[in-house]
Amino acid sequence: MAEPKEIKLFGAALSGYATMVHHALRLKGVSYDYVNVDLKNKSEEFLRMNPVHKKVPVLVVDGKPIAESLVILQYVDDTWKQPPFMPQDVYLKSKVRFWADFIYQKMAPQTYAIRLSEGEAQKKAVEEFLGYFKTLEDGINKDIYVQGPFVQGENPGILDIIIGTLGAGLKYFEQAFPDLKLLDKELVPLSCSIIDAYAELDIVKDTTEMLGQYLHA
After folding, report:
1. The overall pTM is greater than 0.85
2. Which of the chain's ends, N or C, has fewer CB atoms near its CB within 10 Å?
3. Cα distances (Å, whole numbers) of residue 113 to 98, 122, 125, 131, 170
């Protein structure tokens, strides 16, 4: 397959899903153009690129759009081979996909439930989220984990990108809602360690700085 020539990412500065794609491209050393989408006034160009879901992120490679962040992460890993985001072993690869899907299907929606509730309903939502978090922690330890700092070892992979970006969002939650405790190092020590290591990556810091320009524009 010929090397892609034109890569453009449509995203939004506050979108964790788009942030994951920024990180993936930068970890692979891929140069790309970024278009910050006004989510309240989406352009015709953007809507043509994602007419079904009409959401960010969308990665456009040589004019061909790819939508949905988890699909994009897998596309990036398939297109740019180094460094790999997935283990070579087929069984381990299936486990990575399983737990990535678990985060998307169970944990991510629960963060919205926490944000949109209050009182006893919010307390229940937090308890459910932490239960999912513990399930993830135990599953990664059992199915995949090698000695870190990341899930697969020295280099971050797809699960690290997802967990690391989720962790940044959880830290924001804890700042906005001081009574909430979502990052419990006693409950999920491995996940918290991954989140801390991921936050120290240069590509993460550089992405945060770049996106900050749009937040203050």
Report:
1. yes
2. N
3. 22, 7, 6, 14, 13
